[in-house]
């Protein structure tokens, strides 16, 4: 049986061996939720870029640039980090380059060694789980956290994914056991549980409560977000019975 | 109101500012539980030492040396890391030098900047909480984890301490919020919940199930374990009404 591990912060990823494994990067509020929403709304591609300057330079290459630092749109960027911006195919056919406080760094730290990098969100939880079952490889769920620290929303997503995969994967990892229990014990009222969280409070202060609701929507989309080279692409999957 | 934070691994401690704060180091299985038990059983002092060699060298200075690596007594050491060894005042009046896989390193990483370093265990949870309320300083609970990774038992202790202190301290820290919920939702059957944990399994493999039961005993002792210089000492406290 393949194994599943949870890495609670990019500052701990050196403790995990990513070789031959599928890494699922998650930054629920909001990078990976936004990327999945962009892909669902027919952007042509999304290129995650770790640094602000490098991302800004993509503009001259024909990209729409999206940049967020500390929860707000970074100076000189066309788009911030709200999934709602991409709804109604608003950027259909466009190439997007994106940099965020935590999410893009976590992708960067995952891609060197992993066999595959996926991006995870509640928006496509079941599709990601189905894909992982189909592939049958070992999995590391890599939480972006907040500036290196544990955060609640990414850890709860990790717990949710472990919970869905529990019959098909082994998990001898305390992060997986702990977060699975935390998710299962709070899934009935995830939003109210998360409203205590520091990052949710931060977002509320920015008047983007609607983003929180959207990012916590379960299984709105039925595809997987996968890194191919430098670009995230949409992978549809055959229905798993 | 003073603040409480949880640091889930010594690999994340650089993200926390320890200055002017009381750091509570916890390594439930078994370093800090064993230290509290030693102090309760009248050892003259306990000196935590991060390195195996440095600890071994303490023998010639009149110390009883206790050494554990990967859950087992290290070669050439008189004592391992079982709290039961110290019961019935077995080492009363002796000076102990101790090194363990995770706990002593975590103490080492805490003591440079912190105002005070305490060692935490379920065995004296309420006494530690009472002391922290008396002092009124900001607190960081520093989990030893397992070789840098998150572990369940130390994180649950952190959650337990946050839970006891919740009315007297602010906590705007996802680690504190998450672990408090995890503890409160599983406190009715902590042992069975922890039996899934990787470290508990490891201990069971070593036939030291009795150690687990002992380390999960709540409030057996009514004093605080505190680092004074290089030594851990027992601090009794005035009863808090």
Automatic annotation (TrEMBL), chains A, B:
Database matches in Pfam families: 2-ph_phosp
Name of the top EC class for this enzyme: hydrolase
InterPro entries the UniProt entry points to: ComB-like, ComB-like_sf
E.C. code: 3.1.3.71
Keywords, sorted A to Z: Hydrolase, Magnesium
PANTHER family per the UniProt record, alphabetical: 2-PHOSPHOSULFOLACTATE PHOSPHATASE-RELATED
Protein name: Probable 2-phosphosulfolactate phosphatase
Species, as recorded: Echinicola arenosa
């Amino acid at each position: 049986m393949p194994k599943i591990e949870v890495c609670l912060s990019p500052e701990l990823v050196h403790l995990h061996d990513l070789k031959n494994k599928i890494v699922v990067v998650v930054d629920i509020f909001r990078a990976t939720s936004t990327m999945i929403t962009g892909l669902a709304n027919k952007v042509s591609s999304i290129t995650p870029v770790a640094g602000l300057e490098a991302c800004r330079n993509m503009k001259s290459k024909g990209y729409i640039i999206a940049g967020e630092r500390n929860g707000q749109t970074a100076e000189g960027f066309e788009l911030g980090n709200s999934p709602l911006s991409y709804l109604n195919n608003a950027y259909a056919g466009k190439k997007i380059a994106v940099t965020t406080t935590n999410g893009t760094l976590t992708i960067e730290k995952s891609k060197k060694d992993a066999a595959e990098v996926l991006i995870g969100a509640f928006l496509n939880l079941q599709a990601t789980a189905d894909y992982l079952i189909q592939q049958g490889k070992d999995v590391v769920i890599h939480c972006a956290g907040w500036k290196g620290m544990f955060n609640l929303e990414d850890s709860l997503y990790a717990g949710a994914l472990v919970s869905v995969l529990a019959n098909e994967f082994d998990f001898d990892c305390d992060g997986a056991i702990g977060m699975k229990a935390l998710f299962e014990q709070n899934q009935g009222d995830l939003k109210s549980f998360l409203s205590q969280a520091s990052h949710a409070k931060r977002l509320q202060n920015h008047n983007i409560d609607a983003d929180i609701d959207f990012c916590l929507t379960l299984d709105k989309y039925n595809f997987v977000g996968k890194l191919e080279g430098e670009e995230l692409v949409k992978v549809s999957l055959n229905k798993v019975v």
